[in-house]
Specification:
This protein is α+β, with helices and mostly antiparallel strands. Helix content is 39%, strand content 19%. The structure holds one RNA strand.
Length: 445
RNA sequence: GCGGAUGUAGCUCAGUUGGUUAGAGCGUCUGUUUGUGGCACAGAAGGCCGUGGGUUCAAGUCCCAUCAUUCGCCCCA
């Protein structure tokens, strides 16, 4: 039996050109998060299974996680998301941390799933969380951060829409206003969640099916149909218009406008599954019809820290997956060509030159240049071809002439130009080019 | 868990109603007299036709199974 060279199903190898893309994506994340004062943290990839069981979904644990027994008989699970972990960490030092707390992380997470477009088994997920702010300033900050991040990748406001809703409002409308029971609300939320996937008559039929005869009698189907087409807070029925959650949403949308976030809208059909969200939720969706999916989202989950037996801490956060982000950037043509991180490919004229070139190479490295030396002794055109193939921007030919004179030809492999300089000048040219370009080690061609 | 599609060279794929030694483009390597890439020309390497079984004088081609890849459904933290 021969060994397979493919990576494990649903996981990716990162060859240097792939890793370069990842570094580019992550460097923007770090840049923006840190500009908002967020600090990076990390944690183990393994957690006790109990951490995920506490949310109550045994089925998800059994079918969609990597869970196994360690040698001590403890059940452990590879993390499927960062939120329980970060809540655990905050709870662990509940008293001594200074609030508000702004944390971010870019963990890899594993979910045992059937694959489809945009969904792998291992992916990386930017997690941004702010702890200790009860007001909508937290939601505002986190949404603005997400918005600026997308813009930093080159996205414009027409490429995505930020949908905002409120768990508390939905609960109020379905529970108190319409008088639905808890299980009915659960089913309804699930149904609305995939509303856009269903033909309208199928949706109405299922809506009808979950109501009791007396509720149908009272015209709830019609009420719901009217509610679900509401596009603005002002279109909500007068009976719910004064609920505190409506005012919160209003203030939030207003604040976002102040911050020049022009594409945030209220969307009553936004549900975000059955998780721990307690109040405002939001989601960012791609407007490209080819990739018409929700990209990422988040919201307020005030209850999670409290599950560890300490006083709850109000929390707002979001998670953004690398795969969906890359799909988004690709479909809008926003992925830049990234150059190799090696600055200079040094081609040697003849193998015999290798010993003689060492002193010069050493000097260049000490000056901070990242050099790859070709000591194969091949013809120079072959050596240059290799440099081009690797995506390295500059090359220098070293031969007896250059070593004698101390003058070198710096060749730009992108535009084909060459310039002759002394070593010092070459070092400063490359340093300048590098600092004028994007951080993260990658040069934007 | 359910359903669809696809498995032939490193990659993208041809391969006729079953018929001799299995094809192209791109890529790789070598060379076109050895100090400057992308072009051109010449040449080379590289395939258990996913795997196993069956039908047949004969299978890349037809049938069954299996594995893998992929897309969708369920689910989506």
């Amino acid at each position: 039996m021969t060994l397979a060279t493919q990576p494990y199903k649903g996981a990716r190898d990162f060859y240097p050109e792939d890793k370069r893309i990842q570094k580019y994506l992550f460097s923007k994340m770090r840049e923006i998060c840190e500009s908002f004062g967020y600090e990076e943290y990390d944690a183990p990839i393994l957690e006790p299974t109990d951490l995920y069981l506490a949310k109550g979904n045994q089925e998800i644990i059994d079918e969609q996680t990597y869970t196994f027994q360690d040698r001590g008989g403890r059940s452990v699970t590879i993390r499927t998301e960062m939120t329980p972990t970060v809540s655990r960490m905050v709870a662990g030092r509940r008293q001594e941390l200074g609030y508000p707390l702004r944390w971010y992380s870019i963990p890899n997470v594993w979910r045992y799933e059937r694959m489809q477009r945009g969904r792998l088994r291992e992916f990386w997920q930017l997690n941004v969380d702010v702890f200790g702010i009860e007001g909508i300033e937290a939601e505002h900050e986190v949404i603005v951060l997400a918005d600026q991040l997308l813009k930093r990748y080159g996205a414009t406001a027409d490429m995505y829409v930020i949908q905002v809703s409120s768990r508390a409002l939905v609960q109020h409308i379905f529970g108190e206003y319409l008088g639905l029971g808890d299980t009915q609300i659960e089913t309804l939320i699930r149904l609305i969640d995939r509303m856009h996937k269903l033909p309208e008559d199928a949706f109405i039929a299922q809506l009808d099916a979950l109501l009791s005869p007396s509720q149908r009698e009272a015209g709830l189907v019609e009420d719901l149909k009217k509610l679900l087409v509401v596009k603005k807070l002002s279109e909500l029925p007068p009976q719910v218009a004064d609920h505190p959650s409506v005012h919160k949403l209003q203030s939030l949308l207003h604040l976002l406008e102040t911050s020049h976030v022009t594409n945030a809208v209220f969307d009553i059909t936004l549900m975000r599954g059955f998780d721990y969200y307690t109040d405002i939720v939001f989601e960012v969706a791609d407007t490209d019809p080819e990739n018409n999916r929700s990209m990422f989202g988040g919201g307020r989950y005030d209850g999670l820290v409290g599950m560890f037996g300490v006083e709850p801490v109000p929390t707002v956060g979001f998670g953004m997956g690398d795969v969906t982000l890359q799909n988004f950037l690709d479909s809008h043509g926003l992925m830049p060509q990234l150059a190799n991180e090696v600055d200079v490919y040094v081609t040697l004229v003849g193998e015999a030159l290798y010993p003689r070139a060492q002193a010069t190479l050493d000097t260049m490295r000490k000056e901070g240049l990242r050099l790859a030396v070709d000591a194969t002794g091949r013809r120079i055109d072959k050596q240059l071809k290799t440099a081009v193939k690797k995506g390295i921007r500059y090359s220098i030919v070293l031969g007896d002439q250059e070593l004698d004179s101390g003058r070198f030809m710096l060749k730009d492999l992108v535009d084909g130009t060459t310039e002759e300089h002394g070593l010092e000048r070459i070092v400063s040219i490359i340093r300048d080019r590098r600092s004028n370009n994007q951080p993260g080690g990658a040069i934007n061609l």
